[in-house]
Design goal:
The strands form two sheets. A five-stranded antiparallel beta sheet has the order 2-1-8-7-6. The protein is α+β, with helices and mostly antiparallel strands. The protein has twelve helices and eight strands. The structure holds glutamic acid. The site of glutamic acid has 10 residues, from loops.
């Protein structure tokens, strides 16, 4: 499989075309990123690497981190996690509040903001230091103990998190938040403010291509069944109200973030991370979506 050739050619073609996307600015600090950054890194199960562009530059992974939070909470709590959060696509934007009222404070899935906030509440109930537990999880998945939070992004999001505050308050009123609201918001905002490179991201997520096992250390990070179920949720819920479009065009389970990052997994083969900060109207990386559509098509590596 000529992965490197495809990556380079597709990247060069897309980067020379017009990009009508827009960088997210509702978290002011995110708006300061260079909009022309582009990185991609693919890690295979056999630990072969293919990459292009700014793949070793750190960026704010935002909602991509929700998958780490979910994996950690699921590992610790097991199936009872599904009494607190659903597994259905929302068909709505990432911070939508409308379904929460009719669903009586149970978020549709763990990858929208409301669902990830509940996951943070669960982590607070389990761990004495949930923020450290999250980093420990990522360190062991990635093999890199230096990955951490960006405190400037944390402060910036705290100043503007009105909608997320509304979500957590509504869920608290339904009894689905067990800890203090400020603490839950603090953990959630930290989760979103993790900084990683494409190389680190693709390496950290390879356990989902390997039935929950870190192929380098052989550590079983989560069970094979949990890994399968997380991939199913990523496939159905990983791209806000564009999850259908991503399945239709790309055909891989994945997750995006408003920092312009995307992770996508081909079970038994590879994980691929991309970063391009300009977003399409649904909040997903404009070039990221296009790149993955072409890459999976031209290398015939979709799951469908
Ligand atoms: N921290 C962001 C928020 O809560 C994450 C959104 C995203 O990446 O989807 O608004």
């Amino acid at each position: 499989m000529k992965f490197q050739e495809r990556i380079t050619q597709i990247a060069e073609e897309l980067l020379s075309a017009e990009n009508p996307g827009k960088v997210a600015t509702y978290i002011p600090e995110l708006g300061k990123v260079d909009p022309n950054k582009f990185g991609v890194h693919l890690t295979t199960l056999g630990d072969t690497h293919y990459y292009y562009g700014h793949s070793c530059e750190k960026f704010s992974i935002q909602s991509v981190a929700k998958v780490f939070g979910l994996a950690l909470a699921y590992r610790e709590l097991g199936e009872s996690i599904w009494t607190r959060v659903g597994v259905e696509p929302s068909g709505a934007s990432f911070s939508s509040i409308v379904q929460l009222e009719t669903n009586e404070g149970i978020p549709r899935n763990p990858l929208i903001n409301a669902g990830a906030i509940v996951i943070c509440d669960i982590l607070i109930s389990i761990f004495e230091n949930p923020k450290q537990a999250l980093l420990d999880f990522i360190h062991s998945a990635s093999g890199n103990p230096a990955i951490t939070y960006n405190s400037v992004i944390v402060a910036s999001e705290k100043e503007t998190s009105y909608t997320n505050s509304a979500l957590v308050n509504l869920m608290k009123s339904f009894g689905n938040i067990h800890n203090a609201i400020d603490e839950v918001m603090d953990v959630y905002i930290h989760l979103c403010a993790i900084e990683m490179t494409c190389k680190e991201l693709s390496r950290a997520f390879i356990f989902l291509a390997a039935h929950g096992k870190n192929p380098c250390t052989q550590e079983q990070i989560i069970t094979a069944s949990q890994s399968k179920r997380i991939l199913a949720i990523m496939q159905l819920c990983g791209f806000y109200d564009e999850a259908g479009e991503f399945a239709f065009r790309v055909g891989l389970p994945g997750k995006s973030g408003v920092g312009g990052g995307i992770i996508a997994i081909l079970p038994n083969q590879y994980s691929i991370a991309l970063w391009s900060p300009k977003l399409n109207k649904k909040g997903n990386s404009y070039i990221g979506m296009q790149f993955l559509e072409r890459f999976t098509t031209e290398t015939d590596t979709s799951i469908f």
